[in-house]
Amino acid sequence: MAKQKLSAKQTRKTLATVLRYLRRYRVHILLSILLAAVSVGLTLYIPIVIGDAIDHIIEQGKVNFEAILPLLLRVALCAGIIALSQWLMSMLNNKITFEVVRDTRSAAFRRIQRLPLSYLDTKPTGEIVSRVIADVDQFADGLLLGFTQLFTGVLTILGTLVFMLTLHPLITLVVVLLTPLSLFVARYIATHTHDMFKKQSETRGEQTAMIEEMIGNQKVVKAFAHEDEALRDFDKVNERLRKCSLKAIFYSSLVNPCTRFINSMVYAGVALTGALAVLSNPTGFTVGMLSCFLTYANQYTKPFNEISGVVTELQNALACADRIFDLIEQPAEIPDAENAMATAQGQVTLERVHFSYNPDRPLIQGLCLKVQPGQRVAIVGPTGCGKTTLINLLMRFYDVNEGNIRVDGIDLRDMTRHSLRRNYGMVLQDTWLRSGTIRDNIIMGKPDATDEEIIAAARASHAHSFIRRLPDGYDTVIGEDGGSLSQGQKQLLCITRIMLCLPPMLILDEATSSIDTRTELKIQDAFARMMRGRTSFIVAHRLSTIRDADVILVMKDGNVIEQGKHDELLAKGGFYANLYNSQFDPA
Predict the structure, then answer these.
(1) Are the C-beta atoms of residues 458 and 465 closer than 8 Å to each other?
(2) Residue 512 burial (10 A CB sphere; 0-12, 13-18, 19+)
(3) Residue 480 and which of 78, 110, 352, 565 are 20 to 30 A apart at CA?
(4) Mutual orientation of helices 26-55 and 65-114 as an angle, nearest 10°?
């Protein structure tokens, strides 16, 4: 029972959010309702006209054509107005639906740009993509169906009741008494299918995440001969999705036949009661009126079929909307402070910094460090000791749990992220390039750079020679993540990007890991010139590349256990010495 109440509460909350998105289109909605009223009113008026025409057919050979012809023309005019009203209503409903879908997707994408990395790092990319694409599409389908049939259906039911009451209250009572059965069946099935559709949506998101992961890592899959296992895993997810979908669709498909059966009972009750009324009082209740009433009975019960179908689709739509709104309503990263830092000098201070990704697993505890402007700080240690985490904290991709990090005496939380990050130049082991020209990828940090500056930066990073050999040189278009460029060439472009900007602080995380030894020597020389006078943080596994660092921080389990220059640390014979000598140990 608690679960059902929670689900109902969540459904109401999601519905309230949908209505909030619809509020800005209230004029369109009012016009749609007005057109629906015109369409329904004329649709209900036509049976009355046809009933009058039937009453002018007295018997064989005695038909009053003079009276019937104007009635038929009136029917044709009403049908034309109905067609025009429904066309305009359809246009308005489509506009409302796809405007809401556009707003929802835009809000979701804006939220993704503002979400903290702690959320994005814990959610599969494909699952987020599934919410923004597939779930919004399902939401749109349900919303469009609701606009198309819900307004018309409700107005038809109310209008038909009014018309039937004016014709024969007793027969109307028969219809009204049998109708709640249809509503009860539709509500019962719809209530029990909501959780099924939600499970279907979640499983679809899991499948999308898996597909995205497998396609994005095909080289790894093939390298480890993981194809068969990947297929088995996919088959398991696909089978669960099949079961969820079949169960949801089966139970939701019961709505229509069940309500149709009840509606047939209503029609039969009206026919029987109406026939008895005609026989008992042929002048008070004519055959034409019975024909009109039977038409109304169909028109009255038909919307219940449509609305029951709409309710089922809306349950699916609300389940999908719940997932997309859950993404949109995720708390954004902590807003920036008002004051900004223009250009840093490069003094970095860490005071009793505590940080962990998971509260149950402490990582960095009580880290203290003071780096003077222009110093080169190397960070070494075994895998998982917190090297990359320290870089994430320096760039404020994550905020510290306790303590503070200062740049030139200013707490990072008192700066805007943009003002902080524009003072850092990063070259990581994993390169990042976007679709566009070579030039576009180099000038990201300095869009107004001249050709001379771009070429000078490329020469400094030793990228100019390979760029010149490309088909269109600096105007060569590459695909996402570098296209056909080698990993080393991609890394050279990322280094060129930093060479062009030359910010006051640098972060080099295995920056030459994909470059051949000969080019690496040249790059190291270029780095030495680039780092002169700039605060530099160098993460390296090859300890031979950090001998000239001003300070070497040796990290283990989130703590700095040794600190000093290369020769000093070797002389101590401690953890660093063991780490350094292990590189040359053949065992």
Answers:
(1) no
(2) buried
(3) 110
(4) 160
Q: Provide the domain limits for residue 550.
A: 348-581
The reported pLDDT for the residue numbered 84 is: 94
- The tokens for 75 are 């029917």
Is there a single domain that holds both residue 488 and residue 540? yes
Distance CA 89, CA 95 (A): 10
Task: At 490, give phi and psi (nearest 5°).
Answer: -60, -40
3-class SS string, 86-109? HHHHHHHHHHHHHHHHHHHHHHHH
Residue found by looking up tokens 């497998």 in the block: 214
Q: Tell me the pLDDT tens digit for each residue of 547-569.
A: 778 888 888 877 778 888 888 88
Report which secondary-structure segment, H or E, holds 427.
strand 424-427
Global pTM exceeds 0.70: no
Q: Which residues pair with 427 in a beta bridge?
A: 508
CA 130/CA 127 separation, integer angstroms: 5
- Per residue in 173-225, pLDDT (tens digit) is 877 777 767 767 777 777 677 778 778 878 888 888 888 888 878 778 887 78
Handedness of CA 129, 133, 134, 135 (dihedral sign): positive
254 by DSSP, 3-state: which? coil
- The torsion angles phi and psi of 498, rounded to 5 degrees, stand at -75, -40
Are residues 64 and 115 both part of a single domain?
Answer: yes
Q: Are residues 309 and 444 in the same domain?
A: no
Average pLDDT, the chain: 80
| Close Cβ partners of 49 (under 8 Å, ≥ 6 residues apart) | 71, 74, 75, 78
The residue ranges of the chain whose pLDDT is under 70 are: 1-8, 58-61, 63, 180, 183, 191, 282-284, 304-305, 308-309, 312, 337-344, 511-515, 519, 542-545, 583-587
Burial track 253-269 (b if 16+ CB lie within 10 A, e otherwise) = ebbbebbbebbeebbeb
Same domain, 282 and 361: no
Structure confidence at residue 80 (pLDDT): 93
DSSP 8-class letter at 375 = -
